[in-house]
Every structure is written in C-alpha cells, then in structure tokens.
Design a protein that fits this description.
about 270 residues, alpha+beta, Metallo-beta-lactamase, Chain A, seven-stranded mixed beta sheet, six-stranded mixed beta sheet, 5 helices, about 20% helix, about 30% strand
C-alpha cells in the first residue's frame, strides 16, 4: 500500500495498492497532464533519491519561505508565518523529510496549516501528521481533497480568524473556495498571502487574475470586480504570491489598479488591436 503522488502537480493520494488511473487535479481544465503522460511517485521514493532538499529562507522578521530544490511538481513555495506564539504554514509543498521537520521545529514548529486552493494541497496530511497540526480548507473545495484525514478542518463562510492578526478570506475566482491570508503583522504593517489566486507579474508592480494559468483561461470581468471590491476592505501593504514574487509597498493600491486594467482589457476599453 502506498500514498501515490502525482509527479506533475505534486498532490498526494490516499493509500492504495495500485497507482490511480488518473490525477483528478491534473485532468481538470485548470491544470494539465504532462506531455510524457501521467506518472506517479511516492514521498518515500523522493526522500530515498537524495535528489531533493527544502530551502528554508528568512524573508523578514517572523516570516520564512520554504521551497523544494530542485523544483518538484508545480514548484510553489510555502510560508511559515510566526504570529504571537502561533506558527502557521501557509500553503504546502510535497517534499518533507526529517531535516525539514528539525529545522521547522527550531523555529517553533507548526500550529496550523491553511491552504489557498487544491493545486497546493500537496502532501498536506504528511505535514499535519509530522507537526500534529490541523489543516484549514474551505468547504467549497472539499471535493478536491485526494487524501482524507482527521486533521482536515473544513471551514465555511467568507472569513475565518485563526488567531488575532491571522485571517483567512474566501475570495473565490481561481477555485470556488479560493482563499487568501491576511496577516496583520503589527498595527502599521499588513501582508496579504495569495498563493496564485492572484499572481504578481514580472515587473512586481501589477497582479493578474486567472481561472487557469497554464491554459491561459481568464476570469470574467464581473468576478474580478467582486474580488477587487472584497480585497479593498483588507489591510495590507505587502503582497506575497506562491512563487517568491513580492509587491513590497503600496500593494493594496497596486491590486486595485491591476484589477481596473484587467477589467478594461476584457471589456475592450484598454486598447485597440
């Protein structure tokens, strides 16, 4: 019996004697199946290969990023947010080994895990079991959980306060239960973690919105209008996406400007071509 892992997206499946026939994450239109076909591995095989390791990088006070090198699966990074004696793992990556566990324990361990959307569920249950931590997933994305666990807490509604200063917001769009994390680091500084519910673009002054990034399927203008309106009620100066792209200042303003540009393009008001 093995917990098989899809090599393309890095999501781990429930225990079985044979490989799943397909990855339901990758065969859905927001993802893709590799050109080389559906391939499976296990976390045990990944660790035994001695090919991977996790880099835990200090980003700023009480914030570290965690990324697997070389890249595996989609290639996102997770974040360890240290908030008032409460450590939150924001989003997840597939690879986890004893060295990773030891390093994170040196930083105070993990008290809870929260996910932005199904593409980053990865081996979330392995992480939850290693640190005895609950996993918070919006109930609207319950159908995408590939490995059930008693650690998973399905929350409902538009927001969930994990601790004072740490708030999950369901904003939808990329997935119905798509979630962002608002971290009020102190009275003056707030950070928004968005996974790829929004993506920071190349020049770090704009964000974009997509239903599918690999397949270039945009979100409708009315959905982005709603998301922008919701985000306008949050307090944040910085924004971190899932791929080490950061808007360092005036992030809230930049998100609103980006949404207006995006909507104008879809409504044929931005350019003529």
């Amino acid at each position: 019996m093995n917990y098989f892992v899809c090599e393309t997206c890095g999501v781990q499946y429930d225990k079985s004697t044979v490989e799943p026939s397909e990855c339901k994450i990758c065969t859905e239109e927001r993802q893709y199946v590799s050109l080389s076909g559906q391939k499976w591995t296990t976390l045990f095989q990944l660790v035994a290969s001695n090919h991977f390791n996790n880099e835990i990088i200090f980003e700023e006070e009480r914030l570290h990023s965690i990324k697997t090198v070389p890249t595996f699966g989609i290639g996102q990074n997770a974040y360890l947010v240290q908030n008032r004696h409460f450590n939150l793992l924001w989003d997840c990556i597939t690879y986890i080994d004893n060295q990773t566990i030891a390093k994170i324990n040196e930083l105070g361990g993990i008290n809870a895990i929260a996910l932005s959307h199904p593409h980053y569920y990865s081996s979330q249950v392995e992480w939850a079991e290693a640190f005895d931590a609950p996993i918070y997933i919006h109930e609207d994305d319950k159908e995408w959980v590939t490995r059930p666990s008693e650690h998973i807490v399905f929350w409902s509604g538009e927001q969930l306060i994990l601790q004072e200063g740490l708030v999950l917001h369901r904003i939808g769009g990329h997935f119905k239960g798509a979630t962002v994390l608002e971290w009020q680091k102190n009275e003056k500084e707030g950070i928004l973690f968005v996974g790829d519910i929004m993506r920071v673009v190349a020049d770090r002054r704009w964000v974009t919105f997509m239903y599918s990034y690999p397949n270039f399927i945009p979100l409708p203008a009315n959905i982005v209008k709603r998301i922008a309106s919701q985000l306008d009620t949050f307090k944040f100066e910085k924004l971190f996406d899932a791929f080490h792209r950061v808007i360092e200042k005036d992030a809230k303003e930049r998100v609103q400007i980006s949404a207006k540009r995006y909507i104008a393009a879809l409504e044929n008001k931005l350019f003529e071509t």
